[in-house]
Prior knowledge:
This protein is of the alpha/beta class. The chain has helices at 15-30, 48-56, 70-82, 135-141, 158-167, 189-200, 229-236; strands at 38-42, 62-66, 89-92, 107-110, 147-153, 170-181, 210-220. The chain has a single domain, classed as Rossmann fold. It is globular, with a radius of gyration of 17 Å. The mean pLDDT is 93.
Amino acid sequence: MLTSSPPLKQVFHCPEESDFYSHCLESLVLNATDKSRFIVEFGSGEGSPVIKSLLRSDFDGEIQGFELNNVAWKIAESQIKQYELSQQYTVHNCSFFDSSLYQSADCVISNPPYLPAADAQIYQPLLHGGSDGSTIAKKLLSLDCDQVLLMVSSYSNPVGLIDYALERGYSVANFEIAPLTFGYYSSEQKVKSAIAHLRKQGMAFYSENIYLLAGVLFKKQQKSQRDLSIELIQLLTAL
């Protein structure tokens, strides 16, 4: 059994979201035809999503993760050792962008920070995704890796993010969507106010208690490749 997380203000903890990220990683990336690959992860947290995916799949490649939160990193290290996955999964306690590992990666994966707020003075500063929630996701897409798996929130300017990906030469190769309830972090008043402001601008989509989270596999555009971006946008903006 994976280690339970410490208090919410120390380490991100949302079992439903982490389980969905794990499911998307497994179904959209690890179980793809080419199972021997090199994957780099931004924001590993305490490692549970990747660990669960590895335990359920026959992926035989390597995943190198990066996590700035020292408490989360220590938990990840412990769990990786516990499940004897050190040959496949390593988490570094340093900045993803200070490393050049992504340059040789077959795929970049992340459940990136997507909480919109005027600044990072929120419960978990590392969950701040810029004023519209999409800043870090766009930065990951700007690296031009061939494949990028991102979790995309319906209240964090999803249309703008997808348009940005298309401008960078990506298409939406595949995706999965799940409804989630607003939780501890997204219910903070500062974040809720930012989300409400985005909604007035047509940049956030949600109902009273529900928003949508999509696991989206972006791939560099191939002429013959079907682009699912219009279908994805329609679903994410349906609330």
